[in-house]
Protein: Fatty acid hydroxylase domain-containing protein
Organism: Ceutorhynchus assimilis
Amino acid sequence: MTFEVTYQNARYNIKSFLKNHPGGLNYLEPYKELDVEKRMKITHSQAATYLLEEYRLELQKHENDLEKLVDWSKPMLKQVGNLGTKYKTWVNCPVDRDLTLFENPLLEMLTITPWYFVPAVWVPVIIYLIKLGTQRYIDLTRDPSPTRTIVLYIFLGLILWSFIEYSLHRWVFHMEPTGKSKLLIYVHFIMHGLHHKVPFDTRRLVFPPAGSAIIGSIIYKIVSLIVPDYMIILLAAGGFSGYLMYDMIHFYLHCGAPKENSYFYHLKRYHNQHHFAQHNSGFGISSTFWDQIFGTVINLRSLATSIRW
């Protein structure tokens, strides 16, 4: 089966893109076998136009000039440093492909994470931290009714994570490496750039546990300098719980089909805008709270018809 459209006198089969289109299936259905040039110019970003070239039919196949700068049949990490000043433009132009990061099979395997692996790793860790933190709090304070305090510390850990989530996404993942530093390009690409380049690669929608453990350990060490031992353990339990929810929400926003007026429906629209139109806004994934505080919120336009993914 095909779902063909015409754009600038070329034919495109966007059948495989239907499930990923930010505007939903129902906004695409009326355009089957029609010319979409006018619609593309009115409502679509430059990234969307770039992405459309992925689906050009073979007889008219065209490779975007930027993609000629790399070899997609080879591991990508060692190539991106050579893009120099063109890296920022290239990484923000999405393609619908699977990406190989490392030549070494073991390293490559460590960067590919099925979504269910994240809760399998972190739920036992969170349970252990709650038990350990609770026991240390009781041993130290002899509090006969510790539940309220323990829940409070875990909740504070959740709040702390929400700020860390925003901060990492905005100031670390979206740093802008200059073409003069290959190292910064490598770091940016492996942390987050690859996700913007291949947003539909479902193997790379959640953070590998090894990487999240490293980041979590660094944050743990910093916070432990200013708070008591039992408190940092309970804060960590709340923080890792927040991280777990974040990673699962992020996966769902890319692959799920939330219903209209639901919390996740709004977040999916919001995150799609971040990916394909407003890269420098909308850094919140699990909530928009900190975007509103720091003035980076994306104001979504009202729609005549709800989106059906």
In short: The chain has 13 helices and two strands. The two ends are 19 Å apart (CA to CA). Residues 107-294 form one domain.
